[in-house]
Amino acid sequence: MTRRAKILLLILLATMAGGAIYLRFLARGIAPQPPAKHAEDVARTKLSEAALQPASPEQTATLYFPSLEQGTLVEEKRLISWAASDPDRIRQVILALVEGSHMGLGRSLPPAASIRAVFLTTDGTAYLDFSKQSVEELKPGIAAESLTVDSIVNSIAANVPAVKKVKILLEGQDVDTLQGHADLSNVLVPDLTRTTPNP
Amino acid sequence: MWGVITVRRQSARTRFCMLLSLLAAVGFLLWPSRQLRSDNFLIYQPSSRTAIPIQIVDQNKYLPILPVLNAVGKVGAIQEKRTSLKVWFDTTELELRLDEKRVRLGKGSLTLGLPVRKPSSQWLVPAEFLTAALPSLTGRVIEYKVGANRIFVGDVRPLTFSLRLDLAGNGVRLTIQFSEKVALRTASSNGKWYLYLGDRPVQPLETDFHFQNPYITEVQFDDEDGVAKLVVTPGGPGLNFYPVLAEGGKVLFADVLNPPAMQPPMPAAGIQTGGAAGSGPGVVVPTAPEEPIPGAPGPPLPVVVIDPAHGGNDTGARARDGVLEKDLTLQWAARARMALLATRKYRVQLTRTGDVALSFEQREILANAARPVAFLSLHAGNLGNTNPRVAVFIYRGTAGDSTEAPRSLIPWNLIYRTHLDQSHKLGQALQARFAQIPGIGADKPAEVPVRCLRSIDGPSVAIEIGSLNADQDSGALTSPAFQQQLATAIAAGLEAFQGGNP
Question: How close does chain A come to B380, measured CA to CA in Å?
Fold first, then answer.
């Protein structure tokens, strides 16, 4: 092998080694990374967690769950450690409804339901922004849908005295109905005419 | 003597052979008709209709894929292998694999409930393929009622009808209410009466109606040969049939009467065309274009608006057996309409008579323009485990409209308030009649914020029957007898409401 050929071979080897290192570097760059959680999701999770943090001793909460057989809402008492602020309390009520009845009553919100945001205005109107998953598995019909709405409104009003009215939004939008029946075009007030105490 | 016996034996053998030949000939003649009478699936399009023979595989309804695709579009090319079939339909590639449920459709795929079959030379797909794949393949709207043998592709507006039978003096009166005007033609054959419904495609709410009386035992809808018709089976020989169109061709009254010991009630209505007198059913073809309905509701009569909820893409609730709320409410509305018309005290208007999606505003405009004495919105939904059950709802206002509305100008979203008292009375009257139906649970009227009643300018209630949900079969809800009981209760409830007797 001539000296010139040796030099060329060395250059070739060095280039290949450099290329290999560069390829490894590139491969690391395009390797799938776990997707970063959307900031909004992170914030929501934190808020939900914060809402569940016990900030005070446990107190009795009144929740209303639907009974389609009776066509009424049935009252259920539960101990909840309330958060300090009213919007967080509202979240706690919604989370308790999503969790479902401890006494085998019907569901007002499906397990996939989640609340995106809660606002409470000075005139006592609570704005609840639900995700669209919250309504996708609702039981169909006027009876089921109206009981769901009353369950939300009555449960919040029973536990957060500052709330006088409730406005329900879906995915941040004002909607005509929950799932084709219950009128959501306006704010809702608590109505206890269709409630029964738990026997 | 022997000669005579031989002749007799030959004669008996000959007769036996002749009998065999005759049976074979009859069998030969009947065989093709048996084939012809096999069920057809009708594909209705705006300008054509195609009949495709249904094939039953493992007791399931299958259709040959290529005739179906050729009926609704253009098959570009086919590549067939032993276990797969590729079809280029317009710009989409469709791939079927033998005995597999998964069908590749362009870049995507869909999974059918039943596998693709090929029992002979034809590739067969289950009937559900039509609703699962045809919308994306053709880009057109597909209307298909589960279990039916007909499908409507594209902008086809089929007419529909409801039917009832009443005793009338010397016979019975069959009343058929069509959603639109029909051009009726009648005939008689094989002891049955045929009512041909013209060229319009028909989507029947029900196909078979059975009765127990000496006059009519069955009315059956049939369009397997592409011609829509009703086949009326009389209860016995010698009955006469007098069909008369009314309401501009939208209502058919057909009296079935015993042979004239007395004079038939409408002898001048037409010319008898079929059925030998005394030996078979007679048919009277209406020649007058229109006959006034005896005691027909005219303009001064109060209007009742019936609103069958949902429709079109908005199917509403669905039962485990596939029954959809939109179909059920339409069926029920047709019965309620007939029950109300039979009282001859109301005009009745439906917000929809076919499978169309209407917004709340469209329904409100239709209803308010009619200035109804009662508005009934019909629903079916989840009412728990009690089945059957009826719930009556009245609109409950929300906080936003709690302030006093101006007297001179009432916003549409507050108009319900002017009729709240009457709506309560209407709800109570209806609930009281529903409660009288044996074996049914009838809830007391409840005030709920139900959107469909908010802007109705008249006494209005929503009636929900149940339970219709994915965990249960529809059960009694689809029973004609149950629906008729509901319809009769509605008529009785309205009469009580109008009479001020809730």
Answer: 7
B246-257 residue pLDDT tens: 878 888 888 888
- B381: which chain A residues are within 8 Å (Cβ-Cβ)? 139-144, 181
**Which chain B positions have a beta carbon within 8 Å of A165's beta carbon?**
399
pLDDT tens readout for residues B429-467: 999 999 999 888 888 899 999 999 999 999 999 999 988
B303-398+405-498, CATH topology level:
Aminopeptidase (3.40.630)
The answer to whether the Cα torsion of B442, B386, A184, A164 is positive or negative is positive
Considering the domain delimited by B161-286, tell me its CATH architecture: Sandwich (2.60)
Classify A41 as helix, strand or coil: helix
Q: Is the model's pLDDT at B241 over the cut of 60?
A: yes
pTM to 2 decimals? 0.55
The verdict on a CB contact (< 8 Å) between A140 and B398 is: no
Superfamily per CATH, domain B40-153: Copper amine oxidase-like, N-terminal domain (3.30.457.10)
**b/e per residue B183-207 (b: at least 16 CB within 10 A):** ebebebeeebbbbebbebbbbbbbe
- Domain boundaries along the sequence of chain A: 1-33, 39-196
Which chain B residue shows the shortest CA-CA distance from A164?
Answer: B399
- pLDDT class of A54 with cuts at 50, 70, 90: low
**Residues in B 283-342 with any Cβ partner in A closer than 8 A:** 310, 314, 316-318, 325
